[in-house]
Amino acid sequence: MTGLQRVTVAGDAPYDVVIGAGAVRELPLLTGTVLAGATRAAVVHTASLAALAGAVVEVLQTAGLAAEALVVPDGEQAKTAEVAAGLWGELGRLGLTRSDVVVGVGGGAVTDLAGFVAATWLRGVRVVQVPTSLLGMVDAAVGGKTGINTAAGKNLVGAFHPPVAVLVDTDSLAGLPDAEFRSGLAEVVKCGFIADGAVLELLGADPTGRAATTELITRAVQVKADAVGEDLYDTGRREFLNYGHTLAHAIEKTEDFGWRHGEAVAVGLVFAAELGVAAGRLSRAEADRHRELVAAMGLPTTYAGDFDQLRGVMAIDKKSRGASLRFVVLDGLGRPGILTDPDEAWLRAAWAAVEESA
């Protein structure tokens, strides 16, 4: 797959996701379209991405915007109320008005934070996302979910605030550590399990994901775009994108976000597959394919923890409704559904299949 790819996310405010080498060079074109009327821009980034953020600032300044870079901590440490409040103070200092724009440059944590700050400043200003990690490219930057973490759990405070554009520049992946790349692949293979069998075939042929990176990203973004365009507010089809995430978010919270998101999702995918088997909804062979492919990709398939503790965290997951515990499970590859209040024996069987031996 060569050249820039474009995936349109439909809905009340449709936007394009531009994918490929050099996609960030599309930024000046936005000032005449989706950013028309903007005079100021705040570019949110981590210190490690100062060079790229500086280039983005320069491009925006050349286009006539008063742009400034704002530095935030790395990873999940950025997604706190304190950091968000600090950014609100900076936006006030810059005089950012409702016609202006926030630009998020970084991994999934930065795009989550930048989107949330944009959603809440003046009750909503425009945001452009420039994800630099594979995880950010295929998941966090696309879809309009924004959020920060609290002591109660991951992403429990947030807003639905779609970006006006997403620029997925695959050149950014050149310096991404292998562990971070693998983490992003967990969200890619999830899209294969719930919707696009070609993703599973591509990763089966090359579990590193390096041989067909642009195609894998484009396919994963398309899966998300199809769901989000139909269901922005996570009340129907979009929920299926949470496959594997109920246990994953509990692991992240229990580990105080010391586990990479994709690593937790990898375990969550195997758990969800085993839960599907226990409930009689997924075949043994299909569940085994989960474990085998995830392992071949170099991602974890087991976790050492206290299931009772994890279950308590899962009870306040965003997908929960009242006292009901809800999971996304498969009725076969590419056929996701919801399992509400699974039998205790099913939960214990699924946990036994991923519990790491002492």
Give an overview in words.
This protein has 358 residues and is of the alpha/beta class. It folds into two domains: 5-175, Rossmann fold, CATH 3.40.50.1970; 178-354, Dehydroquinate synthase-like, alpha domain (Up-down Bundle). It has helices at residues 27-30, 50-62, 81-94, 108-120, 134-140, 178-194, 197-205, 213-230, 245-254, 261-278, 284-296, 307-314, 344-354, and strands at 5-9, 15-20, 40-46, 66-72, 101-106, 126-131, 145-150, 153-160, 165-169, 326-330, 336-340. A seven-stranded mixed beta sheet has the order 1-2-9-6-5-3-4, with helices on both faces. The protein has a two-stranded antiparallel sheet with strand order 7-8. Strands 10-11 form a two-stranded antiparallel ribbon. Helix 2 links the parallel strand 3 and strand 4 (66-72). The protein is globular and about 60 Å long. The mean pLDDT is 95.
